[in-house]
Specification:
The protein is of the alpha+beta class. 36% of the residues lie in helices and 18% in strands. It has 2 domains: 167 residues, Creatine Amidinohydrolase, Chain A, domain 1; 250 residues, Creatinase/methionine aminopeptidase superfamily (Creatine Amidinohydrolase, Alpha-Beta Complex), CATH 3.90.230. The strands form 6 sheets. Strands 6-5-4-1-7-8 form a 6-stranded mixed beta sheet, with helices on both faces. A 3-stranded antiparallel beta sheet has the order 9-10-13, with helices on one face. A 3-stranded antiparallel beta sheet has the order 14-17-18, covered by helices on one side. Helix 8 packs across helix 9. The longest helix is centred in the middle third of the chain and has 22 residues.
Length: 431
């Protein structure tokens, strides 16, 4: 991997936290992702299942984690791997050895995959509960049968009388609250994103193509040990900035337009998620400045509201009030628009059409129960925007925020330029 080794204590702690939540006399399995085919003999680049990585730190395919809990004092941790051989090593390089696995994960019991059934048979007689891991994220749209699902079907078919429980319900809680090591990794991803953003401030000008800007980000990310974008980048100039999930990135930047950049680097599988909007010509128009200033004000106020105890929906509603006030000042909404709005259809949604925040971590839209109160050390995005279809531009700003109990939220992107004057100065000083 390109990233520096992660302190093994993180994965040891994560497993212990999961084991504490398991019933006595229970067993849980976690699988790596598939190598997904494209066509012929080609596959997509391998991406590790984030649950398995969270519990082991292992990035290798064909990996299974077994956690067995007899009682609060007795448990087993076993990793099953593909057995290395000379031919495999020649074609694909070194696979994890027993010592490598211990160094990465802190797990000393390493078996080969051909020992899986025999090992399960030796444990299953005392098992009362089988934990099944499924993708139960609120935004998930699963259209393919995964390696994990095939395993779940196999194991429950072998032992149909054993009670099953959801692993995801435990992980949703555990993964939503970040360990200090995780926060440092997200901060590293944010710092790499900053390097990319500062790079393009001296590159963007009229005539440049969106995909050329994407290439500049990609270069800077790879140079700093990020293997890729954390998600498909949005490089949206002019009217494209009104398209929330614009990913074509194939238009040419024109003088006078704004350029919306929703871009984030990953680092060690952890995501960053930044949005900045900049002037293609290096200077905002007065109209663009007024919209930008309102969005920035909403973002700053929304950040202050991210505190332990508040519900995600309450946060959204409060930010909606702040946004409504700004839209009134801008003349985009009237008092009658506000008076005639409904709870289901607030007036501000005409110009602010998406949510304010989402959990961030190993997934860009990370695990977290939106119906439970926000807690300390959760990491959220804050990303308000105003989109004006009639004027062919939209402005969105986004930072990554750590929730704190007894202090202000921590902005992991505080060093990424966001003030109008700083952006204009940097764009013009580098031309």
């Amino acid at each position: 991997m390109k990233y520096f080794p992660i302190n093994t204590s993180l994965f040891i702690k994560n497993r212990m936290n999961f084991l504490k939540k398991m019933d006595n006399n229970s067993i849980a399995f976690f699988n790596s992702n598939d190598n997904y085919p494209v066509s012929a003999d080609t596959t997509l680049p391998f991406e590790q299942h984030r649950d398995l990585f969270y519990l082991t730190g292992i990035n290798q395919e064909e990996t299974i984690l077994l956690l067995y809990k007899k009682n609060n004092e007795s448990y087993k941790e076993i990793v099953f791997l593909t057995k290395p051989n000379d031919l495999l090593t020649h074609w694909e390089g070194e696979r994890l050895s027993v010592n490598d696995t211990l160094s990465v994960s802190g797990i000393s019991s390493v078996y080969w995959l051909n020992e899986l059934e025999k090992t399960i048979d030796g444990l299953i007689t005392e098992v009362k509960t089988l934990y099944i891991n499924k993708n139960e994220h609120y935004r998930a749209k699963v259209e393919t049968q995964t390696r994990e699902e095939r395993f779940n079907n196999w194991i429950t078919g072998l032992y149909p009388k054993i009670k099953t429980k959801s692993s995801n319900s435990i992980l949703q809680k555990l993964r939503s609250i970040k360990d200090p090591i995780e926060i440092d990794l997200i901060k590293k991803a944010c710092d790499i994103t900053e390097k990319g953003f500062r790079r393009i401030l001296g590159f963007v000008k009229p005539g440049v193509w969106e995909y050329e800007i994407e290439a500049e980000f990609s270069h800077e990310f790879l140079k700093n040990r990020s293997k890729k974008f954390a998600y498909q980048p949005i490089i949206a100039t002019g009217k494209n900035s009104n398209i929330l999930h614009y990913i074509k990135n194939n238009s040419q930047c024109r003088s006078g337009d704004v350029l919306l950049l929703d871009v984030g680097a990953e680092y060690a599988n952890y995501s960053s998620d930044m949005t900045r909007t900049i002037p293609v010509s290096g200077r905002f128009s007065n109209r663009q400045k007024s919209i930008y200033s309102s969005v920035l004000h909403v973002k700053n106020e929304a950040t202050k509201l991210l505190k332990p105890g508040i519900l995600w929906k309450e946060h959204y509603d409060e930010v909606g009030k702040i946004m409504s006030s700004e839209l009134l000042k801008l003349g985009l909404l009237s008092k009658s628009d506000i008076q005639n709005q409904t709870k289901k259809n607030p007036a501000f949604k005409k110009f602010f059409t998406h949510g304010v925040s989402h959990h961030l971590g190993l997934d860009t839209h990370d695990y977290g129960d939106l119906n439970s109160p926000i807690e300390e050390n959760m990491v959220f995005t804050v990303e308000p925007g105003i989109y004006i279809q009639e004027e062919n531009f939209g402005i969105r700003l986004e930072d990554n925020i750590v929730v704190k109990e007894n202090s202000d939220p921590i902005n992991l992107m505080k060093n990424i330029p966001i003030e109008i004057e700083e952006i204009e100065d940097l764009m013009n000083s580098k031309k």
